[in-house]
């Protein structure tokens, strides 16, 4: 179903990466399947026990930079997360119609800024695989700012690094909590992603409209 936005009032589009531009299936498989399997082998544990311990680690740092930090997890779990990511490179894929959407934004003169919680090492793997940087005007990892996107300080730091007018900005992300953080900062327009992982059921958003396919935003009109 087409989604109409007031494009004449939007100058900047902030875009999450994992689950928003890229199918989240890569990250889901890495963190929910491959990491527990390798952790179980490394520590001689049954897989169920390995999953339980990892979930405890995940829960302890959820919403913080460490939750997204490749180096933190490599040290905490005793695994080479960079190497595991490279093993799964073939699972790194664009979401449907992302490139036509980004091209339409460029033609319309909108600034396209990637704003991700992904660690620079994760970003590097995805740039190498998909050439993300060729389709964007700027890329910012929250690790460069010192706060996760859930934090108001992160939004203030982003506005200083890549100046934008929140009142004339659209933010697209698959996390309702992070969309809410952007709204609290003053970003005027938000869109969620209905199915960030193509292999999982859709999400439900309580406060924000959710996008099924970037084709629903094309052509840019309004």
TrEMBL record:
<dbReference type="GO" id="GO:0008967">
    <property type="term" value="F:phosphoglycolate phosphatase activity"/>
</dbReference>
<protein>
    <submittedName>
        <fullName>GMP/IMP nucleotidase</fullName>
        <ecNumber>3.1.3.5</ecNumber>
    </submittedName>
</protein>
<dbReference type="InterPro" id="IPR036412">
    <property type="entry name" value="HAD-like_sf"/>
</dbReference>
<dbReference type="InterPro" id="IPR050155">
    <property type="entry name" value="HAD-like_hydrolase_sf"/>
</dbReference>
<dbReference type="InterPro" id="IPR023214">
    <property type="entry name" value="HAD_sf"/>
</dbReference>
<dbReference type="GO" id="GO:0006281">
    <property type="term" value="P:DNA repair"/>
</dbReference>
<dbReference type="GO" id="GO:0005829">
    <property type="term" value="C:cytosol"/>
</dbReference>
<dbReference type="Pfam" id="PF00702">
    <property type="entry name" value="Hydrolase"/>
</dbReference>
<keyword id="KW-0378">Hydrolase</keyword>
<dbReference type="GO" id="GO:0008253">
    <property type="term" value="F:5'-nucleotidase activity"/>
</dbReference>
<dbReference type="InterPro" id="IPR006439">
    <property type="entry name" value="HAD-SF_hydro_IA"/>
</dbReference>
């Amino acid at each position: 179903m087409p989604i109409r936005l007031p494009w004449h009032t939007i100058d900047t589009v902030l875009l999450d990466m994992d689950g928003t531009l890229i199918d989240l299936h890569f990250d889901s498989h890495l963190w929910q399947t491959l990491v527990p399997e390798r952790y179980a082998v490394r520590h001689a544990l049954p897989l169920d026990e390995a999953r339980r311990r990892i979930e405890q680690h995940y829960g302890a740092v959820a919403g913080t930079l460490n939750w997204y930090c490749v180096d933190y997890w490599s040290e905490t779990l005793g695994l080479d997360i960079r190497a595991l990511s490279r093993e799964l490179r073939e699972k790194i894929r664009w979401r449907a119609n992302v490139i036509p959407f980004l091209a339409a934004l460029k033609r319309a003169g909108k600034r396209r800024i990637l704003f991700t919680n992904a660690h620079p090492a994760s970003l590097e793997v995805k740039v190498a695989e998909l050439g993300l940087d060729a389709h964007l005007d700027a890329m910012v990892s929250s690790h460069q700012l010192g706060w996760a996107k859930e934090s108001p300080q992160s939004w203030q730091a982003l506005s200083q690094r890549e100046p934008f007018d929140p009142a004339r900005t659209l933010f697209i992300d698959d996390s309702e909590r992070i969309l809410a953080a952007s709204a609290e900062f003053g970003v005027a327009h938000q869109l969620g992603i209905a199915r960030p992982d193509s292999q999982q059921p859709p999400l439900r958003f309580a406060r924000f409209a959710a996008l099924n396919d970037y084709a629903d935003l094309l052509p840019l009109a309004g």
